[in-house]
Amino acid sequence: MMSTQRWPEQGWALLQLLLVVSVSQAEKPVCRLIGGPQNPQLFKDGDIMLGGIFSFHSSWKGRQDTYMDKPLPLQCTSLNFREFQFAQAVLFAIEEINNSTDLLPGISLGYKFYDVCGSIARGVRVALALANGNEVVSAPSEAPCTRPAQVQAIMGETSSSPCMAISTVIGPFHIPLISHFATCACLSDKTKYPSFLRTIPSDYYQSRALAQLVKYFGWTWVGAIRSNDDYGNNGMATFTETAQQLGICLEFSVSFFRTDPPDKIQKIVDIIKVSTSKVIVAFLAHMDMDVLLHELSHHNLTGYQWVGSECWIFDSQTAARDRHHILDGAIGLFIPKAHVSGMREFMLDVKPLNSTSNKLFTEFWETFFSCKFKQSKSSAENLTECTGHEDVTGVQNSFTDMSLMPIFNNVYKGVYAVAHALHNILSCNKKCNNKVQLDPFTILQHIRNIQFKTKEGDEVYFDENGDPAAKYEIINWQPTENGIVDFVTVGLYDASLPADKQLNLLNKSLIWAQNSQQVPLSVCSEKCPPGTRKVLQKGKPVCCYDCLRCAEGEISNITDSITCVRCHPDFWSNERRDACVKKEAEFLSYEEIMGALLTAASLFGTCMTAVVAFIFFRYRQTPVVRANNSELSFLLLFSLSLCFLCSLTFIGRPSQWSCMLRHTAFGITFVLCISCVLGKTIVVLMAFRATLPGSDVMKWFGPAQQKLSVLGFTLIQVIICMLWLTISPPFPFKNFKTFKDKIILECALGSAVGFWAVLGYIGLLAMLCFILAFLARKLPDNFNEAKFITFSMLIFCAVWITFIPAYVSSPGKFSVAVEIFAILASSFGLLICIFIPKCYIILLKPEKNTKKHMMGKGHQSDSKYVK
């Protein structure tokens, strides 16, 4: 609960304490009372006395002290019916105990109740009066100026700040102070407040519960308003700390006190107007909330979802003042509902107060019924005369409102805790031991260890901090048709349960701001959906962020993810970036169009080579075939068919065997092919040399030498390939780099040296063959094929020279297609340039396929050459 005055008054209170404990310098040791006597407003004698500190008045008249005369007592104003109810709850419990034969039999409890008017300084003075009494006590010179405390325990105060001041003063004397509504978590510190206990849970639990409640409904962007005292500041500090842990951000956090000037309240209203949060957490006393509500009503600030602390969320008077429905749908925490049989009837029977304090009763009666007694000194005029027999139950106001019965029950339990402790100390059975010397410290220790059940079945005990178990009901303001707010319990909170089970919302419909059925939304930024991650906005709280789409290859599959997770190399992110899907494995297959066309071209080349071989075999005795070295021609055709077929090893999913086969088969078959062409070129050159007078060069390059040269050239390539396969062979490889969303299945070279050695050797033979063919292109034989070989080698070299940059720049399976195309193009070039002209003569110009025709042209050529 809240304090009713600022802390600077405590300085005066502590000064008064020093004055009280000081000893005068008179000739005789006499204990003197400093200041005027403090008389209780309600008093009843008994065997054991209990004290009570209440603010029967909520304020006092202002005065200007001149420090020339002794200050007059406070003139209290604004009668507070709620404090009357709390005091009556104590009287009810005392009367019940005094009439009981089971609890403290034979012992009567008396009481002294003081009115502190909401003043902390007055509360300290009253506490000292309860501890020491008011009489002047003389003591012999040899005896100390001491005596027992006047009361064994003090009930009250209602607010946190007065309790802090009072407990600081009486704490060293171990006099128990039991509060029913002081909730500040700071009072749990037993090093500062050793004798303080309470029957209402600490705000430490309430603040955490409010933060969990805000988180439960998804509100991460809220405003906060608190009372500028110990209650509000400490409670909001705990709420803020817990909120940060739960990912809740405060857009604003402001404080005020009910006595602040209007312009400060106006500033708070202006802050609310410009804010973007739609939820406001109000840690306020009900009187502070009334001040704020009055200002909000002037501006008609509706549409905000209010989350309240126990001090105002269950206050029917605050609800009655909310005529503009600003707080409709408010939600908050309050201590569980309670019922104490007989208490309501006792409270409404206020006539016994007349016998204890006529002055207080008179003021109460006149205020309650707006009337005036004849003998009253009241300044109010035009009031009806009080008879003293008016019916209290016929008036509806805060006094007859019993909505705070849970708080009255707290008062009731506090009195019974003291009674049970006394019962144990006095060893009461059928009768109590009156000879036991009571002292506050013993009573305090017994109260701390007490555990009992009230007549209604409520269990009462205190933990090591002097606090009860923290249990709350979650209250929702639901307006009814007649305009009255119905406080509906929609959930429970029990701090003794595991963290994930403490908050329990019941299956009840809630009403929100502006009578809405939908949970209001209050976030700085919308939730980031799966596939995105949160990126904080510079200079703003963590609740303000942008949603950035995950990069390619990364995903987030939860809402409000702070990071994106990279997919496994075999997987890739889908279009929404919320799941990893298996990458498409890409390779040149037979099923796709390009693979099918290349396969068809390879088979067509093989068939074409077989047809040419068949034609050459069919006409092997003809001059054209015989003149072109038929054995090398057939070997060349065989190697060309292998060249066409080796391109098929490049198509399909790469495997360990296909990777080794494709490069070695390609290298060996092409060397065999080029070796045959080279052999034919050398034969042409040697044949020309053999026609010169005295030349016997043909005997050095006859058929046997030609076969050996082809075998030798091919064997070198075989050795290179064997070394390559032995040292570091090609192997299947998953290429993740070329395409981000695909896996390129290709054959890694293994040893790059081996690969380039194979290509380099082929290129070397091709260049040698090209040079020799170029030299023999104009030889004067009619059957000279050097010019065709020259052209075929030119095509071969051009194809493979252009292959290198095309292969390097082609991505994925296209690089394989380029290599196959180069193989097929060079193979077709050799087949067409070397064999098609001969087939043309064999099939279409048979008249030219005669020895006479060929020799005739040969003689003409020879004659021209000789010239």
Can you characterise this structure?
The protein is rod-shaped, with a radius of gyration of 54 Å. A hairpin with an 8-residue loop joins β21 and β22. The chain contains 24 helices and 31 strands. The chain is an alpha/beta fold. α21 (752-775) packs antiparallel against α22. The strands form ten sheets. It has an eight-stranded mixed β-sheet, sandwiched between helices. The protein has four domains: 9-62 and 79-139 and 146-201 and 341-461, 3-Layer(aba) Sandwich (Rossmann fold); 203-334 and 470-515, Response regulator (Rossmann fold); 532-582, no CATH class; 593-866, Rhopdopsin 7-helix transmembrane proteins, CATH 1.20.1070.
| CATH fold category name of the largest domain | Rossmann fold
Silhouette: rod-shaped
CATH superfamily of the largest domain: Response regulator
Order of strands in the sheet with the most strands? Answer: 12-11-13-14-15-20-21-22
Total beta-strand segments: 31
Helix content: 40-55%
Task: Give the helix tally.
Answer: 24
Structural class: alpha/beta
Which spans of ≥5 residues are poorly predicted at pLDDT below 50?
Answer: 2-28, 136-143, 857-867
Strand content: 15-25%
Named CATH architecture of the largest domain: 3-Layer(aba) Sandwich
- Give the CATH level 1 class of the largest domain: Alpha Beta
Please outline the major beta sheet: 8 strands, mixed
Output mean pLDDT.
84
What number of domains?
A: 4
- How big is the Rg? 54 Å
Q: Between the first and last Cα atoms, what is the distance in angstroms? A: 132 Å
